[in-house]
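Section 5.1 Outputs to date
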Amino acid sequence: MAEALANFRACGIPVSQAMPLVFVAVVVKAQAVLDLMDADVQQWLGINTRKKTTVDWHAAQERGDEALTQAIGRIAWEEKLEGMLVPSARRRGQSNIVLFPSRRRRGSSWKIQRVRDLPKRDE
């Protein structure tokens, strides 16, 4: 929720207008995920969690530049990885998963839990 609300704030949308939000649990079985939480991966890339979580990618885009985090995501997508495990910029020690739907491999699955309990569009 912290990540979602921070994104709304960054776009100038008041939290009161961002609600209600629907959160779901998703069970992910993936074969090719770049784990940016792994110390060996960070060392190999020459980055650390602080560097990844403090990048102002909005400002970089406005300047016409590609931020470090955006470059890593682009390269992961170009390499046909299914996603990335990334550190949370909002909650220290927590992580998020970024999935690339067009890169899901045969044998991988992303299943929303209790999908029948989700609100319907008409509700």
